[in-house]
Amino acid sequence: MDNKKDKPSEGELEILQVLWEREPVTVKDIHAEIASKKNVGYTTTLKQIQRMFDKGLVSRKKDGKSHLYTSNIKLHETQNTLFDKLLNTAFKGSAMNLAMHALGKSKATPEEIKQLRELLDKMEKGEHNG
């Protein structure tokens, strides 16, 4: 995967989120989803998707008069790339500092705390390999 695919911009990530949830999808549907959360023009969304197509982030196929778009990058791969960047730039590579910061900034649900305990137990037993 080339470098452009590794680090989507904030705007590209918004579009990718829609694709990962609902693909294949038209520009009209992508725009409707994004516009429901923030003020953005249709032509802005269209231009962004065209740039993403040119960069190889998305594929499209003709469907009548419209194009249906799908993502060429996986959610998990993107999360890993963004996580690594955040970990290395903001937390100097310390997963502990990142975890402590995240847990200190938000309220974990009882289920999340249970899952965290289970993960820690597995790590102590050497069963978790990241």
Automatic annotation (TrEMBL):
InterPro entries to which the protein is assigned, alphabetical: BlaI_family, WH-like_DNA-bd_sf, WH_DNA-bd_sf
Positions in coiled-coil regions: none
Keyword field: DNA-binding, Transcription, Transcription regulation
Keyword Transmembrane: no
Domain of life of the native organism: Bacteria
A matching Pfam family: Penicillinase_R
Family, as annotated: Belongs to the BlaI transcriptional regulatory family.
Protein's name according to its UniProt entry: BlaI/MecI/CopY family transcriptional regulator
Lineage: Bacteria, Pseudomonadati, Bacteroidota, Cytophagia, Cytophagales
